[in-house]
Design brief:
The protein is an alpha/beta fold. Helix content is 38%, strand content 21%. Strand 6, helix 4 and strand 7 form a beta-alpha-beta unit. The longest helix has 18 residues. The two termini are 13 Å apart. The structure holds ligand AR6. One of its GO terms (molecular function) is deacetylase activity.
Length: 177
């Protein structure tokens, strides 16, 4: 756990649908109409009303973020963002992944939220290398906090040991000082 400008940053090994936070972030696809991985888990746990609301949004371009209610989830909101598909690294993937984190954090800030939990955006089906993604995630959080925000609790929720140790290292590296 690290603190910067009154915000604690935790890397957690666990299931994002169980997080009792103001918002959980969904690693969605640009249709916002559901999918596998964490997207499927979030829709299953939230119930069918989440898909109904998502249908009204008309999708979301890669790197942007959209907010919905969270229905049966313990969280209050779901922030749906779309990470890039890994395509070798020279197609703007780093910038798009940074944008997915930044735009999710900005949206949380605009709503005055205090706590937010992220999954490892793009590191599953979208194939982004985990170590590179972890450095981008930690960097985005750090840069966002420099601007000041209402957030006091940011969690990076990892679903397996490899992701957990990789994201922990990236956060340690950046926030240790
Ligand atoms: N809690 C936390 N993390 C999870 C959970 C969970 N319940 N379930 C999976 N993960 P992915 P992407 C981890 O594939 O790479 C979907 O079909 C998982 O182990 O969910 O951004 C969308 O609709 C991995 O580390 O997201 C898109 O089409 C991480 O979450 C596409 O996949 C992200 O894996 C998006 O791909």
């Amino acid at each position: 756990m690290y603190g910067q400008k009154k915000c604690k940053i935790d890397v957690i090994l666990g299931d994002i649908v169980e997080q009792e936070v103001d918002a959980i972030v969904n690693a969605a696809n640009s249709s916002l109409l559901g999918g596998g991985g964490v997207d499927g888990a979030i829709h299953r746990a939230a119930g069918p009303q989440l898909l109904e609301e998502c249908r009204t949004l008309d999708g979301c371009p890669t790197g942007e973020a959209r907010m919905t209610r969270a229905y049966r989830l313990p969280a209050k909101w779901v922030i749906h963002t779309v990470g890039p598909v890994w395509n070798g690294g020279s197609a703007g993937e780093d910038m798009l992944l940074e944008s997915a984190y930044m735009n999710s954090l900005r949206l949380a800030g605009e709503y005055g939220l205090r706590s937010i939990a992220f999954p490892g955006i793009s590191i599953g089906a979208y194939g982004f290398p985990v170590e590179r993604a972890s450095v981008i995630a930690a960097g985005a959080v750090s840069r966002f906090l420099e601007t000041g925000s209402t957030l006091t609790d940011i969690r990076l929720v990892c679903f397996n040991e490899i992701a957990y140790s990789t994201y922990s290292m990236a956060v340690d590296e950046l926030f240790r000082k």
